[in-house]
Amino acid sequence: MKLDSKWEEILSDELAKSYVKELQDFVTNAYNTTTIYPPKEQVFAAFDHCSFKDVKVVIIGQDPYHGPGQAHGLCFSVNENIAIPPSLINIYKEICEDLEVETPNHGNLEHWAKQGVLLLNATLTVEAGKAGSHQRKGWEKFTDAVIQKIANDKEEVVFMLWGGYAKKKGRKIDKTKHLVLESGHPSPLSANRGFWFGNKHFSKANSYLKQKGKKEIEW
Predict the structure, then answer these.
(1) By percentage, how much of the chain surpasses pLDDT 90?
(2) Active-site residue among 4, 13, 54, 63?
(3) For the chain, which end, N or C, has fewer CB atoms within 10 Å of the first or last residue's CB respectively?
(4) Is 63 a catalytic residue?
């Protein structure tokens, strides 16, 4: 469980704080004593696949999936041989409607990450079968610091905040420097009540990136 060296350097001030050591001890003990997702080597996959300098879009999730073989370190994403979860099905539906493209046949979003989309969960680990089990252990503080570092040190980043939790995490982002897109969560509960479909976040993000002279994302 090792953070990419460039990210480590960028986040050095935060990583030096005492809560990080406590978090590391908690997570290490959890992996040694119970089944934890994602696999230890994929905890920081969001950072491994998307360098700080390449970040163009940030999508904020909440918890890793807590079922076998699902979580692999990228929010909303699952391994290719795993059934596509309901929230991601709704994300894909919105992309297809918004951009008139075909629905992918798998739920692995690594191709987004490699284009500069940081797929960041608020909490980076979870105990098998126990949603939210690693909340309030320090991960949220760390991911808040990541979001703030990007917001402070970069310009013209697209932040996608889906649902109340993500909106709260992104409340300090300077909207004069960045594009902040907000909507309901893509989960069936929210989406079916009219809070997700039709937000056109994917075309809006690409229009903004193009306008700023950046390469659009192939969603």
Answers:
(1) 96
(2) 63
(3) N
(4) yes
